[in-house]
Predict the 3D structure of the following.
Amino acid sequence: MKDIPKNDIVSEINILKKEKNAIILAHYYQTGDIQDIADFVGDSLALSQKAAANYADIILFAGVKFMAETAKILSPSKKVLLPDMEAGCSLADSCNEADFRKFIEDNKGRTVITYVNTNTEIKALSDIVCTSSNAVRIVESLPPGEKIIFGPDRNLGNYILNQTGRDILVWDGACHVHEEFSLEAILDLKEKNPDAKIIVHPECELPVRMTADFIGSTSALLKFTKTDSANKYIVGTEPGIIHQMKRESPSKIFIPAPPRDSTCGCSECNFMKLITIEKIHKCLVEEKPEIIIEEKILLKAVKPIRRMLEISEKLGL
Ligand code: 13P
Ligand code: SF4
């Protein structure tokens, strides 16, 4: 395909969306230019709610594969496109089907709650799916004596365990982005910016979470910066969210928390950043790559996701 100037690409994307009755759903970790052309920008929970209820024929997902798969599972009759199939997730890949199945079998009688950041096979083994927005509330909605398995994120799992005091066995998986934040660099930044509040995602490790003034999902962090009285924040999650934070609070200052590897300087998710405006355009023109999921596994995976959406609706989330 020939190179097209950026403004023309954006206009063409808008025309293609109308012609094909397509919508673009984008996660907060996408680059600002992608967030700006999306029909809807949100966290994992809001995006799955949007994927379950919309009138489009095509959903183009600007995010990673497990998010596009969740959209397909919830809307199997729609064409779901992901502009780059290599946009995976280190956290989802830290939980493979055979090992997780054995973990469940070795710990029979426990309710299996999995974070939405999993491959479809893991969802199919689960009783309830959750996101970082509703994880604590979903666990609290279960009877107090219910024993739980939580996977795959060990940091989110331990955070939920500490918040709820429930009997939870936590799978030992992690996200390479959120585990890379440097405690020393964050404390150093705080010393230089004593007026800044530290806000972090629950996928961060415990020592980093312990420094935080506020812990929450991407949408909770965004809401906090809108309503809180401080003017400066050290942000411990993928810096794509700062685009929306600046938009909602233009006069405030947002400092991305640094990773351990100081040669990189930022904590971008390399998977999320595989998606570009150019790939979105090509994907809309060609209507591929398309997410295809075998019906048998889709029908199993949809149940725990629907259960999450039902509980979230009841809880007003
Ligand atoms: P959210 O649930 O906050 O959208 O987070 C998704 C994610 O991938 C975190 O790394
Ligand atoms: Fe996966 Fe981590 Fe990237 Fe989120 S930030 S998509 S959990 S690798």
The chain has a mean pLDDT of 96.
